[in-house]
């Protein structure tokens, strides 16, 4: 299946000086793509012999996620695939051909090789479009941790900042972007090679909920454990209240894998503890969601360090 490129808001590519691009692991839904003028390429997955795009324009994600995670609960294990170099060439080319520069922010190379494929595509296209810039940035994260960086880049572009300054600002933000999450079962992260057997066993005690984080290298590690789901959400909120940098200026992200009530409980706890500019709640995209499994809930925000 060929990945297709769609322009939002009825705007021609030539009217945009800089294209802000990302992949579907960023968890940016159609409304956010429209609001911030962002374009996206989708990962692909296979579930029960069915191939599908993890993101599709106009899809009802509440319904799609419910079906997807119910299948996982029933024992089916999805398989995801990299976005290859040719797909990125096809994705970047229309923007470059229209006279635009490109900034692509992608999922951590600590979790996938997709950023490497994007870099290879950018190198090949540099020979065809020597007057244009095609910059690839490793978000050192995923889900809304990646997505919030993309939103920041789009906001800066829309305010008139140039590519070099945006790239520098995003590089400065990355070490501060926290990715904290809890899961119902570590088996999904283990099967996908995202955590070690030791970490899986350490978090598998009866009634114990693991708390995990993304490292400075974009990999995942277990950093704490607690007893009970409610307490795990309280700890996430407490960590935000203790460490968030100027929360009243931040857009904070919460992603959930078919556990929307818990996501809104976490949002409520955060808003009770501190003043925050905005909290956005979105379903995990089906690509990254397949690795954390049903019941996962994640919090993304800026702090002094990860």
Descriptive overview:
The chain is built from 11 helices and 13 strands. The protein is of the alpha/beta class and 306 residues long. Strand 3 (44-47) and strand 4 (50-53) form a beta hairpin. Helix 9 (229-243) packs parallel to helix 10 (260-273). The longest helix has 16 residues, at 143-158. The radius of gyration is 19 Å and the shape is globular.
Attribute tags:
306 residues, alpha/beta, 6-stranded mixed sheet, 4-stranded parallel sheet, 11 helices, disordered N terminus
Number of strands: 13
Q: On the 0-100 scale, what is the average pLDDT?
A: 88
Q: Report the major sheet.
A: 6 strands, mixed
Low-confidence segments, given as residue ranges, are 1-14, 192-200
Count, helices:
11
Question: What percentage of residues falls in helices of 4 or more residues?
Answer: 25-40%
Rounded to an integer in angstroms, the radius of gyration calculated over CA atoms is: 19 Å
The fraction of residues in strands falls at 15-25%
The N- and C-terminal alpha carbons lie at a distance of: 38 Å
Q: Strand sequence of the main sheet, in spatial order?
A: 10-9-8-13-11-12
- Secondary-structure element series: EHEEEHEHEHEHHEHHEEHEHEHE
The rough form would be described as globular
Structural class: alpha/beta
């Amino acid at each position: 299946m060929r990945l297709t490129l769609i322009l939002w808001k009825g705007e021609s590519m030539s009217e945009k000086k800089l294209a802000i691009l990302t992949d579907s692991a960023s968890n940016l839904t159609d409304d956010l793509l429209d609001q911030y003028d962002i374009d996206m390429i989708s990962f692909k997955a296979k579930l029960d012999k069915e191939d599908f795009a993890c993101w599709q324009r106009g899809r009802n994600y509440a319904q799609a996620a419910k079906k997807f995670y119910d299948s996982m609960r029933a024992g089916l294990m999805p398989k995801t695939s990299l976005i290859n170099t040719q797909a990125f060439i096809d994705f970047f080319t229309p923007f470059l051909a229209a006279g635009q520069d490109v900034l692509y922010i992608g999922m951590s190379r600590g979790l996938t090789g997709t950023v490497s494929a994007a870099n290879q595509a950018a190198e090949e296209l540099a020979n065809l479009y020597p007057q244009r810039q095609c910059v690839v940035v490793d978000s050192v994260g995923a889900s809304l941790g990646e997505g919030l960086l993309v939103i920041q880049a789009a906001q800066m572009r829309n305010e008139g900042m140039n590519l070099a300054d945006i790239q520098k600002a995003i590089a400065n933000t990355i070490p501060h972007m926290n990715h904290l999450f809890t899961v119902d079962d570590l088996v999904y992260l283990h099967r996908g090679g995202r955590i070690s057997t030791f970490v899986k066993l350490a978090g598998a005690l009866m009634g114990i909920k693991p708390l995990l984080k993304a490292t400075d290298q974009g990999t995942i590690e277990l950093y704490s454990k607690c007893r009970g789901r409610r307490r795990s959400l309280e700890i996430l909120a407490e960590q935000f209240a203790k460490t968030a940098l100027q929360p009243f200026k931040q857009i904070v992200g919460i992603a959930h894998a078919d556990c929307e009530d818990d996501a809104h409980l976490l949002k409520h706890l955060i808003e009770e503890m501190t003043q925050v500019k905005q909290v956005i709640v979105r379903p995990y995209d089906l690509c990254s969601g397949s690795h954390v499994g049903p019941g996962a809930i994640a919090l993304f925000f800026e702090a002094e360090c990860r």
